[in-house]
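Input.
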Amino acid sequence: MVTFLFWNVGRTRRLDIVCRLVREFDVDVLMLAENTLGIADILAKLNTPEVSDFHYNSGLCERIAIFSKFQDRQIKPQFESKHISIRHFKPQNGTDLSLVVAHLPSKLRQSNDSQAFEMAAIARDIIRMEEKVGHQRTVLVGDLNMNPFETGLIAANGLHATMARHIAEKKTRMVNGRSYPFFYNPMWSLLGDASNRPSGSYYHQQSEHVSYFWHLFDQVLLRSDVLPMFQNENLKLIDRAGDCSLLTRNGIPDKNISDHLPILFQLNC
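Output.
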């Protein structure tokens, strides 16, 4: 079982919390967005004289930093742009995957329509990479700056991400004579307060008629070929690192730490 943790750390200086999460959840692959912590500092804190497991898996996408217990050759960049890094992930004696780590443009800088068009372009990049490597064992994780119900996530020519596993298992859908592959988006089950967890990964209150308050910008999506490796109960929004809450007294993300909450998931690969 491989444990992944993604966090938009929001330029936090709380390296102690990052390391506490890694140790508490025995994280194998740590993916950070908006990281301003020094690479050497992170490695020095993650590793100890007794156990030096973690490596910095360098890449060209400056918005993403990846640290893992795997050598560079096991999590090698295949395609990178300003907003995504696609890695060929090959655990020892395991099944190889395409790991797409993303930090997409903010709603503060792009309209919903622009975000949807950008998502369609990213979907094409992913499909081209899948055709190149010859499989669709693809996992996408990151700060998508869109909610699961927005057009760029659900449109067939976008990420085509459905809330229902049984639909994603059909693999593709025909629209106007064209075939589009599905992603499964398990994050829908974490949107709202029924899970006794925070109602999303990001909170923003607006002084206008329509305000969602809670958003689920941080997501993990899986192609149908990855679903046998994934169980929904192994997906979590993290709101605490040991005895340190990541929330304020009002129950929203503490911006003194980060305005986003981390997401944790596991794959039996």
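The mean pLDDT is 95.
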